[in-house]
Amino acid sequence: MTLQKRIMQKQILQNTALWAIVLVLIGYVFCRPVYGEGEAVELPALAQQLAGVKLKELPNLVGQLEVAGKTAVVPLFEALLNGDLYYRKVDRLVVIARLSPAGDYQLRDALLVTPLGRAEKKALKKIRISNRVRSGLRDAIARLTLFSDDPTLRRPAVANLFNRLDDDSVALLQSAAARETDTDILATIERALALHTLLVSPDIPAQLQALDKLDGSLEPVVRNRLAALLESTENTGATRDPAVIRKAAAVLHSIHADIEFYEFLETLFFGLSLGSVLLLVATGLAITFGVMGVINMAHGELIMLGAYTTYVVQLLMPDHIGYSLLVAVPAAFLVSAATGIVIERSVIRFLHGRPLETLLATFGISLLLQQTVRSVFSPLNRQVESPSWLSGSLELNAVFSLTYNRLYILVFALLVFVALLLVLKRTSLGLQVRAVAQNREMAKAMGIRTDWVDALTFGLGSGIAGIAGVALSQLTNVGPNLGQAYIIDSFMVVVFGGVGNLWGTLVGSFSLGIVNKFLEPATGAVLANILVLVFIILFIQKRPRGLFPQRGRAGQS
Amino acid sequence: MKPNNWAIKPKKLATKLNKLASKMAVALSSCLLSVVVCAADTIKVGVLHSLSGTMAISETTLKDTVLMMVEAQNKKGGLLGKKLEAVVVDPASNWPLFAEKTRELLTKHQVDVIFGCWTSVSRKSVLPVVEELNGLLFYPVQYEGEESSKNVFYTGAAPNQQAIPAVDYLKQELEVERWVLAGTDYVYPRTTNKILEAYLKASGVSEKDIMINYTPFGHSDWQSIVAEIKKFGGAGKKTAVVSTINGDANVPFYKELGNQGIAAEDIPVVAFSVGEEELSGIDTKPLVGHLAAWNYFQSVESAANADFIKQWKAYIKDDKRVTNDPMEATYIGFNLWAAAVEKAGTTAVDTVAKAMIGMTAPNLTGTTAVMNRNHHLSKPVLIGEIQDDGQFEVVWETEWVVPGDAWSDYLPGSRDIVADWVAPIKCGNFNTKTAKCSGQNY
Fold it and tell me: Where is the signal peptide (chain B) (predicted)?
């Protein structure tokens, strides 16, 4: 073989190899499976990289997953966002794990969401995320769920895109608008697009039209952008049509007026809510102090016992946290009422008619109860869980929402109040209680066992304190000092409302709550408290018997 | 009092009394003879932490930490050939009682060193006593600064080792432009917020982008404040809350944030008083993603930390107990003191205090803590995100250790003041402009 031939052969070989490579590449490009199947090849591998990923590399990986998986990764993203994404230590398989009632974890495939059996907590390692990853995930989920069939998913998606209005999100929103069926969501999308038009369109009639659409829109982004627009024309003299400027100012003004109105409602709700807490803690005292005349310094500790009862009930039924509060209410009533009856029988009845001694004795009892709780449960605060129906808020619009826990407690306080009123007005026990309160000797002469009535009345007041404790366990810390924070408030309300008058307690607690909350934004929380106290002191100077003084003989004694 | 106790036979009583008298005589004479140090056969370590009252929750842990360190040191053979003996007193969260108990420790028990205090007000109450009786106090909690005493070593963070790096982190990493400074109404939050406000303004943040809010101790109705924060944060710029809210008030605050729909990625809260101990036993769901700035987290992976956690859990006999930053500060303080005593060869306060300066000890996060001339430590600063198991995930840390600054550079009154306990200055309150020492150390 000549050299030439050899070289030629080599060239041919080389050429063939080259062609082969080109052909393979072309083949790969053309014969590659359609997109849906392609993702099936690389997506699990990508998802698998989540196992043990460094926090710094996570945002990048999330981006890749979004591109590769599209809507298929939404369950995975949501699990990651909620802290439900783990990997198995044995094979580093990324799984979605949720705590099962049995105490172990139920596993599901991270992508296919098919069950994968169970595992102990020890066998799993959590994939941890940071705030940066969280907000990235939120955005990604918004982009991916914008076209979902479920309107409850589309709503937050639209809200998210509205907040980050740029060319990409506008394009997404435009295509979403075309297929949106829910009028409410469609209106939000239109507002978002109108805002975009206003900001970028050179066409003045279009800008004016956009402003029409934006009138009354409460999203913070709208008023921020409008304010920025007005400010920029003022400062830099940007070229904007005066008609547009005038209209924008008018729209902004009306938005602000709307917001002010909702803020007023919100403050009113805060006041009512604070009032409802005051009502709950004071109602029991309105019975023991108002009706019986016992200065019970251990009232706060009876509230605390109610809160601890809630804790114990949750310990006993860990799988049914949602119902635990329903069980806790009667349980707390019984525990606190029993404690109250014991206190009355063992101490208070011997001090009848000696208020100073009663005060000191009950103060001692309050310290005793605190220390008992400290010894039994430890001085640390105990964890009382909030059922899911008590978390979150009822969103009425973009600026006005009511938190569920406060809302339920408001309703609950009123229910307790009505129930107590019925007991006092409609039952024979209530009749006897009122009789003893009005004239002990006469009641005795009529054959009422005043001793027995005293004990039951004190038990009733204490039991209601216990119920207040259940409600407070949802708002504040459950610890040995819980009661101390509320004892002054309860006395304040009862004295302000008028000793011995339940309606006075109702009006007193709500008015104090509302006054406090309207003062707070202006003066700060510390000064608001002081001002309310000063107000009450002055008020008592003028009307020593409170808002609704008891009239007649009982009032004189 | 049981009557049985008095039924000691007269002879026995006499011998007992004799023994006691001779012991006292020995102790007394030795004390009279050597002014510098009382030749006792043990080195006494005073522990001044509240074991009852409101602060007991936090301080009991530190008492146990000191006791654990003493036990470990004794296993290693003690110090200078002597055993260590812990003297525990209970100041019961009562500030004036702190001063009385300090006097008791220094005069009656003649302790060589005191580890103690948590709140600033308790430290301020102890300060005149340790200075008068020339005692030695190790203070292990983060505080507002503006102090440096000859007799106190501060092993917790000064504001520039916690608050300022936290603000830097929010600014640089999270691009925060609006600031809510929320705190409980007392000295630490007020001073810290004053420093932060000056720092933010110096770095170009305008007045209207800072909101300052104070609440009473144990505040539980956060509705309006959280609504205000929400409104403040809805103005289009990234907003963060810098929280010096203390103790129990934190849980209702975070709960209200969660209920009003403010997530950590919208408005992050960075706290200086929320650590592992505070998070144990509470429902952490509403806190996940919020931040805390400390010099130590239990979750930091280092050999020293793993050993420390193991030692702590074994000592306290409870696998669920956590470790926290003030515990690390106590650990560093104890080790520094032990090393200084070894170096000085005595427990005499002045000699040990001199030996302390420049002393180094490994901290639990893998670097080395140095005691500076202003009696403050150089330590790394870490920012962690709260996880749902009550632990922190470190998201940021300083590259080097940060020296603690006793007198803040951002307050007009203390800008020119430095603390330097080495000759020729030897002053906790030295004005560099007038070159004068005011003589007052706090």
Answer: 1-39
* A476 contacts B252? CB cut-off 8 A: yes
Question: Do A224 and B236 make contact, defined as CB atoms within 8 angstroms?
Answer: yes
Give the distance from residue B174's alpha carbon to the nearest chain A alpha carbon, in angstroms.
8
pLDDT digits (tens, 9 = 90+) for B148-178: 999 999 999 999 999 999 999 999 988 999 9
Report yes or no: A380 at the B interface, CB cutoff 8 Å: yes
- Contact call for A83 and B388, based on CB within 8 A: yes
Q: Which residues of B touch A134 (CB under 8 A)?
A: 263-265, 289
**Amino acid at residue number B176:** V
Q: What tokens appear for A91 in the block?
A: 């094979």
Query: Residues near B151 by Cβ (< 8 Å), separated by ≥ 6?
Result: B130, B131, B134, B135, B136, B137, B349, B353
Cα–Cα distance for residue pair B143/B155, rounded to 1 Å: 10
Tokens describing residue A121? 């907590």
This prediction has a pTM of 0.81
Q: What is the ipTM of this complex?
A: 0.80
A403 touching B (Cβ < 8 Å): yes
What token pair was written down for A333? 């009533």
Q: What residues in chain A have per-residue pLDDT under 70?
A: 1-41, 235-239, 551-557
Read off the pLDDT of residues B108-134 as tens digits, 9 standing for 90 and up: 999 999 999 998 889 999 999 999 999
Spell out which residues of chain B touch residue A228, defining contact as CB-CB under 8 Å. 236
Burial B134-163 (b: 16+ CB within 10 A, else e): ebbbbbbbbbbbbbbbbbbbbbbbbbbbbb
Q: Give the H/E segment covering residue A4.
A: helix A3-31
- Nearest CB among A55, A485, A526 relative to B185 is that of A526
Domain B163-271: assigned CATH number: 3.40.50.2300
